Amino acid sequence: MSHMTAELSDGTEIDGVHEVVEGSNGVHLKREVDGEIRRAAYIPYPQLTYVYQNR
Q: In the chain, which stretches have pLDDT less than 70?
């Protein structure tokens, strides 16, 4: 499974993202925790710069 990295408007990067789910005001970032894919963060759209696929 490929991973993604999200970059926030303040320059913070969140790596190891497995899934991005769009909400009404932002995105839910999901990561693997204890062998399960779980929601790790909710990022409001104004704070999200972009999400890119790691190679």
A: 1
Helix (H, G, I), strand (E, B) or coil at 41: strand
Q: What is the largest CA-CA distance in the chain?
A: 31
Asked if residue 44 lies in contact with residue 25, where contact means CB atoms within 8 angstroms, the answer is yes
Query: What is the side-by-side strand order in the sheet with 4-8?
Result: 36-44, 26-33, 13-22, 4-8, 48-53
Task: Count the neighbouring beta carbons within 10 Å of the beta carbon of residue 40.
Answer: 17
pTM: predicted TM-score of the whole model, two decimal places: 0.84
Task: Report pLDDT for 1.
Answer: 60
The total of other beta-carbon atoms located within 10 Å of residue 43's CB is 21
